[in-house]
Amino acid sequence: EPNAPYPHRRRLAELWEVEVQRFRAARPQSDLLFRQAKEHMADGVPMLWMAKWPGPWPVYVDVAQGAHFRCVDGIDHVDLCLGDTGAMCGHAPPASVAAITHQLSRGSTLMLPTADAAAAASMLAERFGVPSWQFALSATDANRSLIRYTRQVTGRRRIAVHDYCYHGTVDEAYATLDENGAVVSRRGNIGPPVPLDETTAVVPFNDIPALEEAFAAGDIAAFLIEPALTNIGIVLPDPGYHAAVRELCTRFGVVLIIDETHTFSAGPGGMIRADALEPDAVVIGKSIGGGIPAGAYGMTTEFAAAVRASLDLEDIDVGGVGGTLAGNAVSLAAIRATLGEVLTADAFAGMIERCTQWTAGVQAALDEFEVPWQVTQLGARAEYSFRATAPTTGSEAAHADDFELQQYLHLHALNRGILITPFHNMALMSPVTSAADVERHTVAFREAVESLYA
Ligand code: PMP
Fold first, then answer.
1. Pocket of ligand 1 (CB under 6 A)
2. Half-sphere exposure of residue 10: CA atoms within 13 angstroms, side-chain side
3. Full-model pTM
4. What would be an example GO MF term here (predicted)?
5. Are residues 443 and 415 in the same domain?
6. What is the ipTM for the molecules in this complex?
7. Whose CA is nearest to atom 8 of ligand 1?
8. Are residues 195 and 302 in the same domain?
9. If I label 311, which of 68, 108, 149, 241 is the partner at 20 to 30 A Cα–Cα?
10. Which residue range is the domain that position 26 belongs to?
C-alpha cells in the first residue's frame, strides 16, 4: 500500500510526551524569552509561521554561523532547515557579509542603481539562461510582478498553477482542486479577495491532458510552476513532462514562468540549467541575498520587450509592480557576492554530495526497520514522506501527511541538536555542511525510526 498511516498511535503519543519533557528540561532560557515575548507578539514570535514548531515553546536563537546555530540555552544545532532556503549559503557567509557591510557603510537605498546591479543581473542571466532581469525583495514579490506583466501583455485574465503548488503569499496561487476536480481556495487560505476559480486554473503535476484542457479555455496568461514540486514533499517531473509543458505554452500563447526559488538546489543554474528547460520568465529568491531580503525575475528578450513596450514611464510608480526598497544597493551587493563567491558551481558539487550522504542515511534506516516511507533527493535538498513510493502529483504527496508523526520526528531531532525544516520533512545542505553534520542526523533519525518501528 503506497500510503499506510502510522499504525501505533498510542506508542506515538507516549514517545511524544517523553520528547516534550526532554525539551522542557533543556530549554529554560527559551521559555523565559517566550513568556516575555508573548506580551507583545501573538505566540511570542514576530511572524506566526515561527510558532509552527514542535514543542511547548519556540527555540530562541543566540548566534548562527555556517551550518550551525546556538540557541539561548547554549545548545549547538546542525541547521538542516537553513531558514527554509534563505540561508542555503550557510549562516553569515564571510564573502556576503563583507559585501553587505561594505555597502551598508556607503549607503543602502537611493532609488538609483549602483554598479552591482548590472553585475548581479549578468550573473543571473548566465546561470538561468534568460537575459533581462529586474529585482524585488522576495520571491513572492517577483512572482506577483511577473503575473501582472503576463496579464498586461497577453490581455488575459487568469493564470494556471499546479495543484498543491506554493509560490509565496501570492493570491492567485492559493488555489487547489477539490475531490470533484473544481478549483477552490486552498485549506487555510486567509481572507481570499475573490473566489479562486476567477483568477486561477489548477492542474495536477505531471498531467499533460489536464494542462491542455486548461489552456484550451483561451484565457490563461501564465503558467507559474516549480519544475519539481518542493513544498508538498518533493515531486519530480516524469520524463517528457517539461517538453510537453513548453510545447503547450507555445501553442496556446501562455507565458511559462519557472520559479526556481527552491529547485535552485539542483545545481548552480537550478533545474533550468540541469534539465535544459526553456522558460519565458524565471523567478529566484531567498538564497541569492546571502541571508538578507532579495528576489529577482528574469525574462527572455521577446517577453521583456513586450512588457517594456506596454509600459508608460509616466505611470510606472503607480502601476503595481515594484517597491520603494526593491533593487536597493545592499541587496544587489549581496546577490553579486553570494552568486560570485558563495553559491558557486564548486560549492554545489559538495552540497549535492552531502545530500546524497543524507539521503543514504535516511534510506538505510528505512531499510533496516522495513518502514514504508520513501525519500527523494533534488540536488542539495531531500525530503522523506510517509508513503512507500515517490509521489507523482501534489495530491498524492499531500495525502501522505501525518502531522503528529511529523511533529514527533521534528522534536526528536531538535532534542538531539538537529533542526529540520518546519512544514516539511526536508533537509537542505549548505556549502559548509560537513559529513559529521550529516552523520549526526543519520544517527538520530535511525534512533527515531527504531523508536517507532522496532
Ligand atoms: N516560491 C517558492 C517555490 C517558494 O518555495 C517560496 C517560499 N517557500 C516562495 C516562492 C516565496 O518566498 P518568500 O516567502 O521568500 O517570498
1. 84, 138-140, 166-168, 226, 231, 259, 261-262, 285-286
2. 0
3. 0.98
4. transaminase activity
5. yes
6. 0.99
7. 168
8. yes
9. 108
10. 9-79+345-453
